[in-house]
Fold this sequence. Notes:
This protein is an alpha+beta fold. The protein has three domains: 5-51, Ubiquitin-associated (UBA) domain (Helicase, Ruva Protein, domain 3, Orthogonal Bundle); 54-147, Elongation factor Ts, dimerisation domain (Tetrahydropterin Synthase, Chain A); 149-206 and 248-290, Tetrahydropterin Synthase, Chain A (2-Layer Sandwich), CATH 3.30.479.20. It is 51% helix and 20% strand. The protein has helices spanning 5-15, 19-28, 33-51, 82-85, 88-104, 109-114, 123-134, 174-177, 180-196, 208-224, 229-247, 262-273; strands at residues 58-66, 71-79, 139-147, 152-157, 163-171, 253-254, 257-261, 277-286. α3 packs across α7 (123-134) and α5 runs antiparallel to α7 (123-134). 32% of the residues are buried.
Amino acid sequence: MSVSATDVKKLRDSTGAGIMDCKNALKETEGDLEKAIDYLRKKGIAKAEKKASREVKDGIIESYIDPESNLGVLVEINCETDFVAKTDDFKKFVNDVAIHVADNKPNDLAELAGQTLADGKSVEEIRKEVVGKLGENISFKRFTIFEFKNGSIESYIHPGSKLGVLVEVNTDSDAASQTPEFKTFIHDIAMQIAASNPLVVKRDELSPEIIEREMNIYKTQAQEQKKPEHIAEKIAQGKMNKFYEEVCLMEQSFIKDPNITVNELLKQLVSKLGEEVVISRFVRYQLGEK
C-alpha cells in the first residue's frame, strides 16, 4: 500500500524514528497510526535490549523541587556519550524521571522502573523507547529524595549538569525560610557543597572507622620520622583537625569569604533571624563516581 508523507510526518513527530522506519511501520500496519507506533516501540525495545550491555560513562544530573509538598529530588541518569547527554530528548527524559520520582517516591531503582506513568507506559518502557530513538544505552544510576517540615530544600546543578547538590536546611518557622537572608544562605551552602565536596555536615557524623583510619595514618607518618610518641600524638591530632576542616561542612572555610567558617556564617544568620537554623543533610552527585 502507498503511505502518505503526512502520515509519515505524524509518525516521526510521535516517535522520533527515521523516515524509512516510519514508512515500513505504516506499511506493516496498513496505515494505522496507533499500531505503527506500537510497531516502532517494539523495534525500539529490540534495539534497547541489544544495547543494554554497552557501557554508559556519560549522562546528566538533574534536580526537581516541589514547594507544595516540601520535597526535593536529585537524579543521575547515564548514557554513552556527551553528544546524547546534550540532546533535548535526553534532557526531557531525565527531567520527566525527576518529576516522577518526586510524585511517586519509589523506594529503589527497581521500583522506579516498574512504575506506570499517566499515559499507561512504565518508566522502563519509556527508557527503552528513548534508547531506540537516540541509539545509545541509557541506565538509571541513582536518586535521592528529601522531605521536610519547616525550612527549605535547595539544589545546585553545575553548568554542564555533571555535578549536582541537594541540601536541606531547617528552621523553627516557615516565615524564616522565606526571608531573603535565608534564601541567600541556603543557595550559598549548596554552592559550597558543590565546590568543596564535604563528606558530612559535622564531625560527629563521621564513622569511627574513618576517624581511626585517618588517625593511624597520621601517627604512622610521624613515627616514621622518629618522633617521640607524645609528639607523634600531637602531630597526628593536628592533622586530624585539618582533616575535619576539609571534610566537615560546618568547619570548612566559606568559599565567598575564607576568613570565616560555614559554622560562623550560620551563626550570623541565626542572629539575624532570631531563631534556630540547622543544616540537616545534603547529597552531592558527581557524574561517574562510584
